[in-house]
């Protein structure tokens, strides 16, 4: 699988849906402008975002400048005229606003339970020999 990272503008407000199992999925299109000499070309990327991240990205508006990191996959399909085509799609691993063109307020989501929950009075830094595993707070 090929990784891809790009910055561009949303061409429309993301569309949020839920699967029959209740998992959130958002679909969006991102336009990436690039200059080639005197001319400017635009690439359009179809992006799929899953889970809580999909619910967060659904709050973005058309035109929002975003940064996307994800996995590029191809999909084979046939047109109504019977021509075989290949479509490229990105499944986002991370997405967020480009802070060169916007401000953002960060609100952390509730963390998932770990095997050893931390209390406010203790942290991994209190332990003289901390173990850095999946229960670290970052």
From TrEMBL:
Its Gene Ontology molecular function terms? DNA binding
Keyword hit for Acyltransferase:
no
Keywords of the record:
DNA-binding
Keyword flag Ubl conjugation:
no
Q: How does it assemble?
A: Homotetramer.
Q: Which NCBIfam families match?
A: ssb
Chain positions covered by the region annotation Disordered: 108-138
Q: What is this protein called?
A: Single-stranded DNA-binding protein
Polar residues bias locations: 111-122
Pfam families linked: SSB
């Amino acid at each position: 699988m090929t990784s891809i990272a790009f910055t561009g503008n949303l061409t429309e407000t993301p569309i949020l849906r839920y699967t029959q199992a209740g998992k959130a999925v958002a679909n969006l299109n991102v336009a990436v402008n690039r200059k080639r000499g005197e001319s400017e070309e635009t690439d359009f990327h179809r992006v799929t975002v899953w889970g809580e991240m999909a619910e967060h990205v659904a709050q973005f508006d058309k035109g929002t400048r975003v940064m996307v990191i994800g996995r590029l996959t191809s999909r084979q399909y046939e047109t109504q005229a019977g021509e075989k085509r290949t479509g490229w799609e990105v499944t986002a691993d991370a997405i967020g606003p480009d802070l060169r063109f916007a401000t953002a307020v960060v609100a952390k989501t509730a963390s998932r339970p770990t095997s050893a929950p931390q209390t406010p009075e203790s942290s991994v830094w209190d332990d003289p020999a901390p173990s850095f595993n999946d229960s670290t707070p970052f």
